[in-house]
Write a sequence for this structure.
């Protein structure tokens, strides 16, 4: 995985988006585009050109998994790595998808002080 500079964060919960934005942009130094839904992400992702997708698994409308599959249909984003953010129970339920379609998962609730480093660590594991 190349160095991560730009993160597309898809999360339906406004409070989580706000905390993640502070963590990723202010503390982590990433450029972050946040979307409240999979549909919103599909409209904006290609123009943003993210280095990684950070996707909530459980969202109304399109789930994180459905969003990832739809994003992969966009040629320029088809190889963009994905990290899911989800609860431990949902991660267990969808472990096969996480292992086959994503480079990692971050458990909710997440530590805002550690989120950027967790993403860097996942990227480093994939690169090695």
């Amino acid at each position: 995985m190349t160095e991560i500079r730009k993160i597309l964060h898809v999360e339906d919960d406004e409070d989580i988006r706000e905390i993640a934005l502070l963590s990723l942009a202010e503390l982590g130094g990433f450029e972050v585009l946040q979307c409240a839904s999979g549909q919103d992400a599909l409209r904006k992702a290609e123009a943003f050109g993210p280095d990684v997708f950070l996707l909530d698994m459980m969202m109304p409308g399109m789930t994180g998994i459905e969003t990832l599959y739809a994003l992969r249909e966009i040629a320029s984003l088809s190889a963009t790595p994905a990290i899911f953010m989800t609860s431990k129970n949902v991660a267990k339920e969808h472990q096969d998808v996480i292992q086959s379609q994503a480079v990692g998962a971050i458990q909710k609730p997440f530590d805002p002080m550690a989120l950027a480093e967790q993403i860097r660590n996942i990227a480093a594991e994939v690169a090695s």
Summary: The first helix runs from residue 14 to 27. The mean pLDDT is 91. The helical segments are 14-27, 38-48, 64-72, 88-93, 95-101, 115-127. Residues 6-127 form a domain with the Rossmann fold fold (CATH 3.40.50.2300).
